[in-house]
Amino acid sequence: MTDFQARLTPDFDLSARNSLALKARSRFGLGITDAAWLPELFASAADLSLPVRILGGGSNVVLAPAYDGITAIMALAGRNIIEQNAAGILVEAQAGETWHDFVAWTVGQGLGGIENLAGIPGTVGAAPVQNIGAYGAELADHFVSLRAYDRHTGQRRDFSRADCAFAYRDSIFKRQPDRYIVLSIRLLLPAHWTPNLNFAGLADLADSGALTPEQVMARVLALRGAKLPDWRVNPNAGSFFQNPIVPPAQAAPILAEFPSAPNFPQADGRLKLSAGWLIEKSGLKGFRLGPVGMSDRHALVVVNHGGAEQGDVAALSAHVKATVQQRFGVQLHEEPIFL
Ligand code: EPU
């Protein structure tokens, strides 16, 4: 056994490392606290003929009960102001930082820009993978660049915003899941902040006079707390399905039946519908199947009521998809990644 292999923890328990609290173990586990370990990690894995998967905060994954490989937990730490100029404040965070702590750190210094994204579970490194978004904002809005490890070449590579090909809950990293490992990200926070109050629940803040990023963050956290079940209390992975984006002809019968159904026109002419609304109107809010169910607080959230495994979540997901397809003719797609 090499020195590096001695660092691997055998029969690694991941039940407390995924926000759905699914029963999950890995043949080996390892915390990555130094990016320089990555080449050794992949060399060791090749030696042992084992696959490697990378986990961040475990808040957007549906883990298998047993993984016959190495689960590497991204634990690179650090956040800094790189440079301050007329364009704004360039900040950098390492992939293992908790996303919300990073947001609170910027806001704590009076820096605005990402306060609408407060309270999103998970790590900095996972944020670009699905271009996290909430309350009228998304990561791409203030994103400048990131550094990633390319598993194909064994080299580090920098990605500009355009290179990342961000879209709604999507990026090049999500489309090529086994290739890149995000190491750090850089954001440019505006020198002259203006609050983004486009989301309905934030609009009234415009009347509060001189608003601070801190006040907007407090409202966002209050909105999240009121709507979404807390994964620490009711284990979940946030939104379980993406909001479907459909051609107008597919939305027409739904809007004819329910003129007030939430719908958001996209730049390409299609309409984004609300998956939570479709699930609730299909009669599945609070629906339970075995140890899992759709939350009775927010129909888009799958909750583990205790003792669930990946298969339970897959069965519930299949039932919800089939029911919504039958009722509304709309195909839902899972948001979390099955690993
Ligand atoms: N709705 C229902 N029933 C429900 C839940 C929602 O009818 O049980 C309706 C609401 O009344 C509203 C519409 O659905 O008209 C949209 O609901 P909401 O404002 O809660 O937002 P969402 O589209 O369900 C998205 C993100 C969330 C993000 C919120 C707030 C996706 C898939 N989800 O949810 O992101 O926090 O907006 O901006 O885009 C996540 O990705 O994990 C996540 C939580």
Summary?
With 339 residues, the protein is an alpha+beta fold.
Short descriptors:
339 residues; alpha+beta; Uridine Diphospho-n-acetylenolpyruvylglucosamine Reductase, domain 2; Uridine Diphospho-n-acetylenolpyruvylglucosamine Reductase, domain 3; Uridine Diphospho-n-acetylenolpyruvylglucosamine Reductase, domain 1; 5-stranded antiparallel β-sheet; 9 helices; globular; binds uridine-diphosphate-2(N-acetylglucosaminyl) butyric acid
| Topology-level CATH name of the largest domain | Uridine Diphospho-n-acetylenolpyruvylglucosamine Reductase, domain 3
| Low-confidence runs | none
Number of strands: 20
What count of domains describes the coordinates? Answer: 3
Q: Which structural class best describes the helix and strand composition? A: alpha+beta
Kindly state the percentage of residues in helix. 10-25%
Estimate the global geometry from the Cα principal axes: globular
Beta-strand residue fraction: 25-35%
What report would you give on this structure?
With 339 residues, the chain is of the alpha+beta class. It has three domains: 8-74, 2-Layer Sandwich (Uridine Diphospho-n-acetylenolpyruvylglucosamine Reductase, domain 2); 79-225, Uridine Diphospho-n-acetylenolpyruvylglucosamine Reductase, domain 3 (2-Layer Sandwich), CATH 3.30.465.10; 230-338, Alpha-Beta Complex (Uridine Diphospho-n-acetylenolpyruvylglucosamine Reductase, domain 1), CATH 3.90.78.10. The chain is built from nine helices and 20 strands. It has helices at 3-6, 38-48, 99-108, 161-164, 172-175, 213-227, 248-257, 275-281, 310-328; strands at residues 9-13, 25-32, 52-55, 61-62, 66-74, 79-85, 88-94, 133-134, 137-138, 143-150, 155-160, 180-190, 236-239, 245-246, 263-265, 271-273, 288-289, 292-294, 301-304, 337-338. The radius of gyration is 21 Å and the shape is globular. The chain binds uridine-diphosphate-2(N-acetylglucosaminyl) butyric acid. Uridine-diphosphate-2(N-acetylglucosaminyl) butyric acid binds next to β13 and α8.
